């Protein structure tokens, strides 16, 4: 079992994003044509025909509001896929697994301090056992006591995939 707490987008935040996203645009649901979109609400890929939406999301802004931090210029807004309606969130992950992981894929592991400032990052190419790559990168990130949270991002599109915190 992972010593790290992988987090999907919070249900209350999802409810708001399903009305108006973090860029001020209305949510526009549609049926996933073929499936495969990485859903940040339940941390799995969409199935063909599921009702989903692509919304703008500011993960650091949302965390900072609850933590009393002011991330300043590090506050980014980017696209994420979510279910168009409430989905129940992620199912319990199998031990030793991480969302959207497969051998050879590249992930950016970006570290933030308690003020919401970037304190470093690392490019990770996931090995044959993807969890091993994540475990090494996250252990390295959280060795620094100043690291409050980590964002895992897709390199090919740069978008936010999930957040990781200390358990």
Describe how the helices and strands are arranged.
Layout: E1 5-7, H1 11-17, E2 30-31, E3 35-39, E4 44-47, E5 51-57, H2 59-67, E6 78-83, E7 106-113, E8 118-125, H3 130-143, E9 147-154, E10 160-165
Antiparallel strand pairs: 1-10, 2-5, 3-4, 5-6, 7-8, 7-9, 9-10
Architecture overview:
- This protein is an alpha+beta fold.
- Helices cover 18% and strands 34% of the residues.
- The longest helix is centred in the last third of the chain and has 14 residues, at 130-143.
- The termini are close together.
Q: What would the average pLDDT be, to the nearest integer? A: 93
Distance from first to last alpha carbon: 12 Å
Shape: globular
- What is the count of β-strands? 10
Mind summarizing the main beta sheet?
5 strands, antiparallel
Question: Would you tell me the structural class of the helices and strands?
Answer: alpha+beta
In short:
The chain has 167 residues and is an alpha+beta fold.
Characteristic terms for this protein:
167 residues; three-stranded antiparallel β-sheet; alpha+beta
